[in-house]
Please model this.
Amino acid sequence: MIKDEDIKHQDNKNTEELNDICDECKKTDESVTQNLILTGFKICKSCRVSKTIFPI
Model:
């Protein structure tokens, strides 16, 4: 049987992933969550453009 504590722990884990902090530059940006949904990477719009232009 699933306990309420387990459900709350899973909810906290999911919200930690959606904290809008870029993995590359560590800045908070709204586009991080959008890019996470679209591409699967937690990067902001600026880092995404720079990775597209300079993929090194």
Remarks:
- Helices lie at 4-17, 31-39, 45-53.
- The mean pLDDT is 81.
